[in-house]
Amino acid sequence: MSTSPESRAPRLRPPPFTPRPRSQTSSYPDSLRYPSTRSTTPSLTSSISSKSTRSTTPSLQPPGTPKYKATISAESRIGTKGPKNLHVRHTSRPPSPRKRVDATPSPTPFIHPVDPEAGLLDWKSLEPDLSAEIDERDLAGISSSTPEDKVLVSVRVKPPSGEGRDNQAWNISPDENLITLDPRHARSTGKATEHRFDAVLTGSDNRLVYQRTARSHVIAAMEGYNSLVFAYGQTASGKTFTLMGDENEPGIIPRALKDVFGYIRKNPTREFLLRASYLEIYNETVYDLLSPSSSGSLGPTITDAGVVNLREEVVTSLKGIKDVLERGDSSRRTASTDWNERSSRSHSVFRLVIESREVGIDGRSESPSQGVPQTPGGTRLQTRGGRSVQSSVLSLIDLAGSEKATSDKERTREGKYINTSLLTLGTVIGTLAENAAKGKSDHVPYRNSKLTRMLQPSLAGNARVSVICTLNGSTSAIGETTSTLGFATRIKKVQLHAVKKEIIDTDALLERYRKEIEELKARLEERERDAPARNRRLSARQQIDESRALNDMSGRIKQLTKLILTSETVNESKGDQSRPSSPSKLDFSQSPYELQKELLLSKEEIERQATLILSLEASLEQRAVVPLDAPEFEKDAKIIELWVIPLYYDVWRKNVWPDEDNRQKQVKEYEFVTKRYEENLGEPLRAVKEDVEKEWAGKLEALEEKLRASDSYVLECERGLEKERQIRLKLEEEKRALVAFVSDLDSALPSLRGLVPPLTMGTSHSYTGTMASSPFRPTLSALTESNPNSPTPSPVKTKSPRKKSSVSIPHGNPTMNDSTRAATLFDQTPEDDLIDGDASFTVHDKENHAITI
Ligand SMILES: Nc1ncnc2c1ncn2[C@@H]1O[C@H](COP(=O)(O)OP(=O)(O)OP(=O)(O)O)[C@@H](O)[C@H]1O
């Protein structure tokens, strides 16, 4: 890779400030330089430093005493079956110290009765030979033999099961690397029916698949090239089986990790630093599988510089790296679909950053004066210290599978995102292939999906790439299989030009650790040298503090040294896998031997945690932005921002809004769906956008329709109520008028008696008129007017200035002959009935016309 002089200049960073509570930092004046060792694990590091590191634990064995090796069974030596077949026979294990107490004293250290240190050493020296775990035969002849400028393309056909055996549409010739569509089905496709690739595989042997498809790329990564291995294919065709495998058939990832450590072991001239990370892309959002809680602005983001804000853990052993893998795997999104019981709903990416450098004969890093040969394949960058560090990334990717719509709505939605990003991957590969074939440089739409954006540097050529296309050979999947083969054919044409990358020493974590170790060692030496003179001036208390500080320093040196892997250290820790996990309950009736074993395991756990602390520190360091000499208030503000606010917010959120996480996730998804299309998306995702918009527009329309219906119902109800109110008012008025009328009538009765026939309900003599204006309040004059025959019209006055009633007095010569009945009129039309019941009554005029009031 060509590097401009400017870019070669070391980018010196000021020592970062790592916020930490005052109480802890203040007790150690120079703790800002090595804050966490002191502040978070003072006793831890000192205990590790003094006891647990194998190389430094004082040995009670006389020099040259042979170490005991436990024998292992033949098959576990061969190592073809993995760790579960590892049978350790403890025949040559020395007797436990308790038994030895009674034995005749012997000059060998193993008979030392009680010294636990001696026990530790004995037990460590007894660890079984795990050469079976890292298979020597596999490592022999490892070399990156793939044509460097081409993608290594393999297809793997999933073996049919059950009835599927009779429905196979493809003929497979592994020896010729050929796959052909059976002539019986060939006519229907109208496409090429014969395909040749770098490897055509079938069956369930993952070892073979690893060797043919991925091993060379893993080794290339160890040699300094970025390497990318991914599986592509329709759902349930075997991508996860190929990458992860199962207990009996570990897949590419576990085998690759084994080879990584095997490679380190076989290369004593280099030292390595490994950092693992694991992410997934789900519904076009990147999630950190090692830190599932990080999200939003703190979550991983894809930038031109790669993926940032992603947790990277320094790993020092095969077991450690497998733990990381398992932890991440447990956070992956899988679900049962119509086709696969455990279908990956996201693209998952396991990344291993490998930094390495030549070391001298004494184990120290080489300087140019020592004449290290130029690493072939890349520019050697030599900066201040003259050191160059090779850096590469091994990416192992299990893509989600392309699929048809499923019966589940949520799965369908995920499926849309999956298909879209795979479509974009296809488009990107197609464009790259065409550019390569025709010597063009057409725009490649990397930015149209997160997956292609992340793969951009690799697909653009700066990596060794291997793709395994997994196929379903059944007749029911001819279309999908043909499409996958098309992808395989296109990607074969992509041109690569990967080169080794060497980075400036200050950017390499390996170099930073190495420098820190050297500085610490120098300081330690100096302080130890001055100790006798200084101690004379110090109080007893100060001397204790001083000795504690020295312990911390040496603990830190040991921890940092452990992170840097060499052939020797990998050899030492290869027993990790076989050791039993620590029981949760301590049984003090165990033999001293067993207890020592427990002790050792616990110490190792402490070491593991300490390693984790260190790698967390490393991530933290990358985030620290306040320089050491920044004003106090700035540091305080940072502490509040990083610790206090998130802490309180978290507590508050959990109390006030327990479902906030889900809500936020949903909001994020909605935001994504609704807002950022234009800036983010290209053609394929626009199709998703339209789909989603259509879906939501339909829902919105239905809701609006419902709203309109309920609005008009409410309006109708209001109108009905108003009508009823009016009627009620009218009735009340009529009631009042009737009451007045009746009382008028009552008072006029004596004078009318003999002239007017008795007014009764339903009788034929009555009055007529409209009821609109107090029909029951006819004035006496009206009555008299209508009864011209009335001899003595009574001057009765109306009580209210109401409109004159149009009630007409019945014709004829009515005679009021039943005053008693008339007086009972109130009884017959009680007030309540007028209001609540049917208020009308009927009277008849002379012509017997019924009038209903
Ligand atoms: N080569 C194989 N040999 C034996 N079993 C296999 C093979 N390939 C796949 N299987 C089995 O088929 C099932 C589906 O495989 P797998 O989950 O790997 O598919 P996938 O392509 O990853 O699907 P998805 O895209 O839905 O995640 C699993 O039970 C797996 O064990």
TrEMBL record:
<feature type="compositionally biased region" description="Basic residues">
    <location>
        <begin position="84"/>
        <end position="98"/>
    </location>
</feature>
<feature type="compositionally biased region" description="Polar residues">
    <location>
        <begin position="578"/>
        <end position="590"/>
    </location>
</feature>
<feature type="compositionally biased region" description="Polar residues">
    <location>
        <begin position="366"/>
        <end position="382"/>
    </location>
</feature>
<keyword id="KW-0493">Microtubule</keyword>
<feature type="compositionally biased region" description="Low complexity">
    <location>
        <begin position="31"/>
        <end position="59"/>
    </location>
</feature>
<dbReference type="GO" id="GO:0008017">
    <property type="term" value="F:microtubule binding"/>
</dbReference>
<keyword id="KW-0505">Motor protein</keyword>
<dbReference type="GO" id="GO:0005524">
    <property type="term" value="F:ATP binding"/>
</dbReference>
<dbReference type="GO" id="GO:0003777">
    <property type="term" value="F:microtubule motor activity"/>
</dbReference>
<feature type="region of interest" description="Disordered">
    <location>
        <begin position="361"/>
        <end position="388"/>
    </location>
</feature>
<dbReference type="InterPro" id="IPR036961">
    <property type="entry name" value="Kinesin_motor_dom_sf"/>
</dbReference>
<feature type="region of interest" description="Disordered">
    <location>
        <begin position="1"/>
        <end position="115"/>
    </location>
</feature>
<feature type="binding site">
    <location>
        <begin position="233"/>
        <end position="240"/>
    </location>
    <ligand>
        <name>ATP</name>
    </ligand>
</feature>
<dbReference type="InterPro" id="IPR019821">
    <property type="entry name" value="Kinesin_motor_CS"/>
</dbReference>
<protein>
    <recommendedName>
        <fullName>Kinesin-like protein</fullName>
    </recommendedName>
</protein>
<dbReference type="GO" id="GO:0000278">
    <property type="term" value="P:mitotic cell cycle"/>
</dbReference>
<dbReference type="GO" id="GO:0007018">
    <property type="term" value="P:microtubule-based movement"/>
</dbReference>
<keyword id="KW-0547">Nucleotide-binding</keyword>
<dbReference type="InterPro" id="IPR001752">
    <property type="entry name" value="Kinesin_motor_dom"/>
</dbReference>
<dbReference type="GO" id="GO:0005874">
    <property type="term" value="C:microtubule"/>
</dbReference>
<feature type="region of interest" description="Disordered">
    <location>
        <begin position="770"/>
        <end position="820"/>
    </location>
</feature>
<dbReference type="InterPro" id="IPR027417">
    <property type="entry name" value="P-loop_NTPase"/>
</dbReference>
<dbReference type="InterPro" id="IPR027640">
    <property type="entry name" value="Kinesin-like_fam"/>
</dbReference>
<dbReference type="Pfam" id="PF00225">
    <property type="entry name" value="Kinesin"/>
</dbReference>
<feature type="domain" description="Kinesin motor">
    <location>
        <begin position="150"/>
        <end position="494"/>
    </location>
</feature>
<keyword id="KW-0067">ATP-binding</keyword>
<feature type="region of interest" description="Disordered">
    <location>
        <begin position="569"/>
        <end position="590"/>
    </location>
</feature>
<comment type="similarity">
    <text>Belongs to the TRAFAC class myosin-kinesin ATPase superfamily. Kinesin family.</text>
</comment>
<keyword id="KW-0175">Coiled coil</keyword>
<feature type="coiled-coil region">
    <location>
        <begin position="503"/>
        <end position="530"/>
    </location>
</feature>
